[in-house]
Amino acid sequence: MKKQYVLLLLCVWSQIALAQTIQGFTSKSTQDQLALETQFDAKLKKENLDEWMQFMAAEPHYVGTEYGKMNAEWMKEQFESWGYDVEIDEYQVLFPYPKLRLLELTAPTAFKAALSPEPIAEDKYTQQGEALLPSYNAFSTDGDVTAELVFVNYGVPKDYEELEKLGIDVKGKIVIAKYYGSWRGIKPKLAAEKGAIGCIIYSDPADDGYVQGDVYPEGAFKPETGVQRGSVMDMPLYPGDVLTPGYGATKNAKRLDRKEAPTITKIPVLPISYADAQPFLEALNGPVAPSDWRGGLPITYHIGPGPAKVHLKLEFDWQLKPAYNVIAKLKGAVYPEEWVMRGNHHDAWVHGASDPVSGMVALMEEARAVGELAKAGQKPKRTIVYCAWDAEEPGLIGSTEWVEDHQEVLKEKAVVYINTDGNGRGFLGVGGSHTLETMVKEIAGSIEDPQTGVSLVERRAAAAKVANRDTDFRLSALGSGSDYTPFIQHTGIPSLNLGFGGESSGGEYHTIFDTYSHYTRFKDPGFDYGITLAKTAGHITLRMANADILPFEMKAWYKTVSEYMDEVTETTEAMRKQAEKQQQLVAENAYVIAADPKDNLKAPEAEKDIPYLDFSPLQNALASVKTSVHDFSKTDLTSLSASKQKMVNAKLKDLEKALLSESGLPRRPWFKHQIYAPGFYTGYGVKTLPGVREAIEQKNFEEAQEQIEKLAKTLTAFKGKLDEIVKMG
Ligand SMILES: [Zn+2]
Q1: Separation in Å, CA 293 to CA 183, 204, 298, 712
Q2: CA of 422 to the centre of ligand 1 (A)
């Protein structure tokens, strides 16, 4: 070969190598890592997902069931056979079982809600009778109430504003709200704050029944007797065991008196089907509901109150039940004291083929392949910890208790937590710490979508383009709704949550219809997306485990936080303009003149002025972080010596913790993260820069100013940590 050719080849080769250097790796270690990932992919088998789902979802397995315990023990054996050190960590957690459920219409006619689902002939799992957990909302209080009924749409704050305009008060009434529009726990929480004494939640066919598509078994949507179960614990206050806030629910832990537990609802609440809901809604009179409140039932939707009168009686068996978390460790060959954590829950409301077993079996297949690679000599550099959580459904209880009980070791060792839950067909959705965005994007850009053959990034971008949305691959911010919450919100461990969806919607969520039969027909036939999830989460896990320098990247983080900052300032301005306009309209008596006199609308009072807030501490803090972010991104940390890399990684691991505040958010100290939190009135929905944003939204401007200063201090501390790392480079 001629010398020029050799040079040219070398040049081309190094260009390729350079182009392919991945976040946290050198060009040499990039090649090794990519080769390892190819071997990992080759080991994944979708038959395993199918077989394991049939086994795990064969019977109901909510917390405290024999079947749930057996699943935990069976998973332990599996992990052990793949080379993991496994323990089952047990907690004793409060779990209410429905003892008495009575819902009846007492006027103007009599009707008793059946509260029992119709089994499906073609689906044997729906025919297990008594074993199927009766439909209820966990952590509703006991109660026996009788009152007039009011329809409150989704039961979210803006619905109550609408009711106020109509002069309708829910004080002393029982409300009926539709599922959706918020996390379900917000509905009874808000109803109680407004003075209601009981709450019924039903699934309207417009949201996930026959209006959306054919109902099960013809299609995926909710049949008329289907009921969504679910927790109504006040999780935005604190998730986990209601009796042991902030510490592990171990056998001898000190427990609150149940009567004092603040996260149990204040009023009784019960979910029902649309077959049961219709007679109640039909019996309402009063104003016709606004057009966007009306659902898909063949009735005219009225708001009430009355003449429908309702009797709701609920009694629960309040018992401590054992929750079994399966914790499987594969010791790292180079940095055994650094943990890459990866989890999914294993408990379900009923069979839970989709939620959570589809995610659980993908995690197990991933763990099996990682274990096989290790057995063949390809051990991860860092320790990998696979977790199967129990008692997620009633309130993220298994994971929260474990995290609260392992605070010290987690602070010392955990570098990341990667969560999955139920999985379906469609597009990759990922949320999490924005310091991980670059790494996730690299991985998603290299994994093929099983239906179209393009990369996961390209498929998402094409959909965004068609819908006229931003095509950039961005992580969403995490609120709550699965087991990442105690890791990121309470402990400041960088976290991710991922899964596929968007092309597999249905009405089976938390019902007796979430079965293997339903899943394999409508959610992910053939488990192609189950395997793609195992690949995606597996690559993330392996990169975190093997990176020379932990793959945190600051530019994407900075960009996102600056955008949040712009949002809160713009929100304040928009609120001011809105208030000024409203004051003007009130002054002109425009609302009264414009309204239909027959509607008897209440004339609104003029809103208060929106004061000017001083955002400058925050703006200055963010500007100074920008300099550090710039310096950090210029520093090549992968070229440092091994001992220096170890020191840098130790600091990188703790970086996100600098975004916590020890005292936490106002009125909910359990939530310590200053950038992301679930909304106090949205539940699962995230509020970014939550201290500042929620104070503004609640028009508590004094608190908003305090929170601006607090967040500015947090960002300055974060900058300090970043500068320490830059100095080491
Ligand atoms: Zn789940």
Answers
A1: 17, 11, 14, 41
A2: 6
Q: Ligand 1 mean position to 347 CA, how many Å? A: 8
The beta strands (E) that lie in 165-228 are given as 174-178, 198-202
CA distance 523 to 351: 15
DSSP letter at 728? Answer: H
* Contact between residue 422 and residue 359 where contact means Cβ atoms under 8 Å apart: yes
- Å from CA of 393 to ligand 1 middle: 6
Rounded to the nearest whole angstrom, what is the distance from the C-alpha of residue 355 to the centroid of ligand 1?
5
Q: Ligand 1 mean position to 658 CA, how many Å?
A: 29
Distance 477 CA to ligand 1 centre (A): 18
Residue (of 165, 26, 84, 106) closest to 600 by Cα position = 165
Cα–ligand 1 centroid distance for 33 (angstroms): 31
Cα 265 to averaged position of ligand 1 atoms, centre (Å): 21
Q: Residue 193 contacts by C-beta under 8 Å, 6 or more apart in sequence?
A: none
* Calpha distance 602→605 (Å, rounded): 9
CB 240 within 8 A of CB 95: no
**Which of these, 453, 500, 532, 489, lies nearest to 656 by C-alpha position?**
489
Q: What mean pLDDT is predicted for residues 373-391?
A: 98
Q: How far is the CA of 531 from the centre of ligand 1 (A)?
A: 18
- C-alpha 17 – ligand 1 centre gap (Å): 40
Contact indicator for 115, 280 with CB cutoff of 8 Å: no
Angle, CA of 49, 527 and 387, to the nearest 5°: 45
CA of 433 to the centre of ligand 1 (A): 20
Q: What percent of the chain has pLDDT over 90?
A: 94
CA 421 to ligand 1 center in whole angstroms: 5
Ligand 1 centroid–CA 479 distance in Å is 15
Give me the long-range contacts of 718-722 (CB less than 8 A, separation at least 24).
718/625, 718/655, 718/658, 718/659, 719/621, 719/624, 719/625, 719/628, 720/658, 721/651, 721/654, 721/655, 721/658, 722/554, 722/625, 722/628, 722/629, 722/632, 722/655
Residue 440 three-state SS: helix
Residue 675 alpha carbon to ligand 1 centre in Å? 24
Query: How many angstroms is it from 574 CA to the middle of ligand 1?
Result: 37
- The single-letter code of the amino acid at 554 is M
Banded model confidence at residue 309, pLDDT cuts 50, 70, 90: very high
For 93-140, the pLDDT digits (tens) are 999 999 999 999 999 999 999 999 999 999 999 999 989 999 999 999
Q: Rounded to the nearest whole angstrom, what is the distance from the C-alpha of residue 512 to the centroid of ligand 1?
A: 15
Per-residue confidence (pLDDT) for residue 14, from 0 to 100: 43
Whether the pLDDT of residue 153 is over 50: the answer is: yes
**pLDDT tens across 264-290, in order?**
999 999 999 999 999 999 999 999 999
Give the per-residue pLDDT at 417.
Answer: 98
pLDDT digits (tens, 9 = 90+) for 403-417: 999 999 999 999 999
Question: What distances in angstroms separate CA 281 from CA 160, 273, 284, 688, one per listed residue?
Answer: 18, 12, 5, 37
Interatomic CA distance for residues 70 and 84, integer angstroms: 19
Note if the pTM is more than 0.85.
yes
| CA 599 to ligand 1 centroid distance, Å | 44
- The distance of Cα 241 from the centroid of its chain, to the nearest Å, equals 18
